[in-house]
Each structure stands twice: as C-alpha cells, then as structure tokens.
Amino acid sequence: MKELVMAIAQSLVEHPEEVTVTEKQDGDETILELKVAPSDVGKVIGKQGRIAKAIRAVVKAAASKEEKKVVLEIQ
Asked: How far, in Å, CA of 57 to CA of 14, rounded?
C-alpha cells in the first residue's frame, strides 16, 4: 500500500524526491501519512480535494481487496 501511494504522489508533484510515506498501525487500521514539499501540497490535494479523494478511493479499493482498513492522511 505504501508503495502505491508513493508512486501516485511522485507522479503528481514537481519535487518527487521530497515525497515520503510513513505507515503506522492503530489497532486493526493502517494509517499512511503522505508528506510532500510545501509547494506541492496543492497538486496532491487538487481543486476542492478531488485528487486527494481519488487517491483515497484507489487506496481503499486496494486495501479492501486485501481485506484491510487503510486511512490516508496528507500533510
């Protein structure tokens, strides 16, 4: 899951070397924290959060296929 988010985010931003994804466990839930350069935050979130919503939908679909619960936080 971490690699999927990393690949998507790196393809969207101008500074792919600054993209980091950290993974935390919170009970039965996996939390993925996506951090990008401050100048790239808008590109990852998109107008009215559409890109962020699309990334979360892809992650949720991939997680449900593996029967896991994953939450994506963009910072």
From this structure: 23
First to last CA, the chain: 17
Written as one letter, the residue type at 40 is: D
Conformation bin of residue 52: beta by default, left when phi > 0, alpha when psi is -120 to 50? alpha
The residue behind tokens 């890109």 is 51
Q: How far apart are CA 8 and CA 43, in angstroms?
A: 12
- pLDDT tens over the chain, length 75 residues: 999 999 999 999 999 999 999 999 988 999 999 999 999 999 999 999 999 999 999 999 999 998 999 999 998
